């Protein structure tokens, strides 16, 4: 089963974390990776040895932000540059920790948002690259079997 209730199944979420961590190892950048469901709740998490301590908080927050705003966090960072007051208010008004930082990617099942994956610990571009590895696995897993 690909989709659990409201998001990726635990088994698939763990595979997404593993794919992202493999990509981070190739970059030689210790990271934390989080997968959340459609409500922004953590489903799976992994932290590589020597990943920055703040990445433990930032990866789940990036995933939540991708769910709440229904777009990659890199796109939100760009939008915030031209309207910082609005996006700053999202961070203030949110009951959960959200961040304006690259590396969070929404997971779509057709037209439905079912969760997000995020990486933290590298540069913004590295975080995006590592999250993209999980997205590639998501795309493969979401393909109907022949």
TrEMBL record:
<dbReference type="InterPro" id="IPR052517">
    <property type="entry name" value="GlcG_carb_metab_protein"/>
</dbReference>
<protein>
    <submittedName>
        <fullName>Uncharacterized conserved protein GlcG, DUF336 family</fullName>
    </submittedName>
</protein>
<dbReference type="Pfam" id="PF03928">
    <property type="entry name" value="HbpS-like"/>
</dbReference>
<dbReference type="InterPro" id="IPR005624">
    <property type="entry name" value="PduO/GlcC-like"/>
</dbReference>
<dbReference type="InterPro" id="IPR038084">
    <property type="entry name" value="PduO/GlcC-like_sf"/>
</dbReference>
